[in-house]
Amino acid sequence: ETRSDKGTRQVLCCISIVTAEQRTRSEEMRSIAGVVHRIARAAPAPVHLWDPPYCGDLNLRIASDGTWYYLNSPIGRHALVRLFASVLKREGNKYFLVTPVEKCGIIVDDAPFLAVELDLLRNAQGAQVLHFRTNVDDQVACGRDHPLRFEAQVATGGLKPYLHVRRNLWALLARPLLYQLVSLGEKREIDGKRRFGVASGGEFFAMTDSELLQDLIS
Q1: Of 167, 117, 123, 113, the residue nearest 145 (C-alpha)
Q2: pLDDT tens across 113-157, in order?
């Protein structure tokens, strides 16, 4: 049995435990804890290659702050959250936990991940590269393949920043990271307009018009 096969078997076992309707919640969580105890580390699986049948929805929800809930109770075991995150797939605006043999829907309030740390490094050419860590310990170097995007919030006048992690799965940046980006930002002329944004990996990611910056971060 290869390491990949073992990881898939563990994921299948874990999802089967969660979906076992005949078990009580406490029995399920004890079983899940046993599975997690046997898992050392789970890398993101090749879910884009899997197209299994839909098997219904799980009572799983990812809140806007990145917390995972099962039956409306937060999942406290970080290893279990990382395991589920490794088989997360997005299809349109819907999210699923996917294995080679089954696909189960879950609820995501905003983005499935939360970026919680930001480090500024330099590449071989001396250009700055923003390195992010997510709440499930993904390490992401911002650039062409992992862009930033910024959404203006009409109701509040604020700005919500997102980072592409993988395969159309995005991370919402924690509020302190937005202020870090602003401190690293610069003004550039784009299409005849003065824009404020941040550079990373040789790319420039515009946040807003320069004159609107103060309103968006206040």
Answers
A1: 167
A2: 999 999 999 887 888 999 999 999 999 999 999 999 999 887 776
CA dist 1 and 76 (Å) reads 30
HSE-CB at 190 with a 13 A cutoff on CA atoms is: 15
What is the C-alpha to C-alpha distance for residues 90 and 103, in angstroms, rounded to an integer? 11
- At 60 the three-state DSSP class reads strand
> pLDDT (tens digit, 9 = 90+) per residue, 157-167?
688 999 999 99
Number of H helices, E strands in the chain: 5, 15
Task: Say how many Å lie between the first and final Cα of the chain, rounded.
Answer: 55
Interatomic CA distance for residues 193 and 175, integer angstroms? 27
Strands (E), the chain: 54-62, 68-70, 73-74, 88-91, 94-98, 103-108, 113-122, 128-134, 139-141, 148-152, 159-166, 169-173, 186-190, 193-200, 203-209
CB distance 35 to 14 below 8 Å:
yes
Q: Report if pTM > 0.85.
A: no
Torsion of CA 128, 129, 130, 131, to 10 degrees: -140
Residue 133 phi/psi, 5° resolution?
-120, 135
